[in-house]
Specification:
There is one protein chain. The chain is α+β, with helices and mostly antiparallel strands. Helices cover 17% and strands 30% of the residues. It has nine helices and 29 strands.
Length: 443
């Protein structure tokens, strides 16, 4: 049915079939049979031990806990960030075990989670669910994971090493979700995981150095999601391999991919993706960049692109939890053969530059400013007679040139004293004052 929807979005059935022949199709995401736990994960799991604590008999709603416990809620929130393929995570449910009405479900105690995932053709999507199960097994003791059910298989941390896995024969095959139970200590946040650093899985795939670097589509820091039928691989592109898929009209993505970013040092970086014709032709490819705690949506037109395409320059924080994602859906109608690449992603360090300094020039004079004062001129007409003392005493600030005339000619009048007698209104000839001043300066 999904293939018919894709073909309608591409308008022509013939062109849709033609797109199938362009590249090699990957194997299915659903693996036949029950969950197969990788050997290295099994080896780590054998070293983990968590005692099993059940919920007890079902005696009705009066014994239910009422909600998720604090540790269960905290693990749920972390898993939603760490594994973006998860659709939702259920938790508390006041009920007995399915198929066993005499036993209380651990969900009723608030110590169990149901991690919901999309199906692949009606079967468990192992590409999406297996990494979650593996992480929980490898960190079981640190977190406090006592029991897991996934895709008709169980794993218990309390069982004997070498025999911790066992087939599940319950009423529900658990092909659309992982059932995860926490120990009582974990639900109360008393295990080491709740006080540790708790790095995200995308921060454990490799650290990019200060100058940046390349994340290839076949690296551990790259994850492709969605039905494998619509992911194609080619022996070309950056590094000699690449993936691509087709764009289609939808409100939600079907196939999408993520490059995980963990940086040794924060700073400004140019973000680039590698695009090669004819596998990069979509005119409106949607990228979402998470850098620091900021999210940016970027639309890219790959018309004529052949090589590195820059998405922009952004500020990144040091460490993980940052990523670039590309999606195959678009809101408008999509033409046929609108291919979207999922090849290499590159970060290039952008060093800050000092601002350029322009030429220094004297500012233009302010026309409203007061003019600079000129030579200081004493106007004797403005001075009372008593203020002529410095002149008569030979003030050294005055010019010593005897030929320099006073700045005023005429007479001065005032009240003067001579021989102890005063004569109000008597006039002192200016020439007499001038001669007296010269005599005092010359002696």
């Amino acid at each position: 049915m999904r293939r018919h929807v894709r073909c309608l979005a591409l308008l022509l059935l013939a062109s849709c079939a033609g797109a199938e022949d362009v590249g090699e199709t990957e194997a299915g995401l659903a693996i036949a049979g029950p969950w197969v736990i990788p050997a290295d994960t099994l080896a780590i799991g054998d070293s983990q031990y968590v005692p099993y604590t059940g919920a007890g008999p079902w005696v009705g709603p009066s014994a239910c806990g009422g909600s998720l416990l604090a540790g269960s809620a905290e693990l749920r929130d972390w898993l939603l960030v760490a594994f973006p393929q998860v659709r939702s995570i259920g938790g508390y449910s006041c009920r007995s075990i399915n198929g066993d009405s005499s036993t209380m479900s651990v969900h009723a105690t608030g110590r169990a989670l149901d991690i919901m995932l999309p199906l692949d053709g009606g079967e468990a999507d192992n590409d999406l669910g297996d990494p979650i199960g593996a992480y929980l097994i490898e960190h079981a003791e640190e977190i406090g994971i006592q029991y897991i059910i996934w895709d008709r298989w169980t794993w218990s941390a309390s069982r004997t090493p070498g025999a911790k896995g066992r087939a599940y024969g319950g009423a529900h095959p658990h092909h659309d979700h992982l059932h995860v139970e926490l120990s009582t200590d974990a639900a109360a946040r008393r295990t080491p995981w709740f006080s540790g650093s708790r790095p995200l899985p995308d921060s454990m795939c490799g650290v990019l150095p200060r100058d940046g670097g390349v994340v290839e589509e076949n690296d551990d820091c790259f994850t492709a999601y969605g039905p494998a039928t619509y992911w194609r691989t080619e022996a070309t592109g950056h590094g000699g391999s690449m993936r691509w898929t087709n764009a289609f009209q939808s409100s939600s993505p079907s196939n999408w991919a993520r490059w995980h970013i963990d940086l040794e040092e924060g700073g400004e970086y140019a973000v680039e993706v590698y695009a090669q014709s004819p596998y990069a032709v979509n005119t409106a490819t949607r990228y979402v960049l998470m850098h620091g705690d900021v999210e940016h949506e970027i639309m890219v037109d790959f018309t004529g692109a052949d090589g590195w395409v820059q998405l922009g320059t952004f500020t990144f924080a040091p460490g993980g939890g940052q990523h670039l994602s590309v999606y195959d859906n678009t809101a408008g109608a999509v033409a046929s053969d609108q291919h979207i690449p999922a090849d290499a992603m590159r970060l290039v360090r952008v060093e800050p530059t000092a601002p350029e300094l322009g030429p220094t020039t004297e500012p233009d004079p302010d026309p409203t400013a007061e003019p600079e004062p000129g030579p200081h001129v004493i106007d004797l007409r403005e001075l009372p007679l008593r203020d002529l003392g410095p002149l008569l005493e030979g003030d050294p600030t005055l010019d010593d040139d005897p030929m320099e005339p006073f700045p005023h000619s005429g007479s001065l009048s005032g009240t003067c004293s001579a021989g102890g007698a005063t004569s109000p209104g008597s006039a002192w000839p200016l020439g007499l004052l001038f001669a007296a001043a010269l005599l005092r300066r010359r002696r």
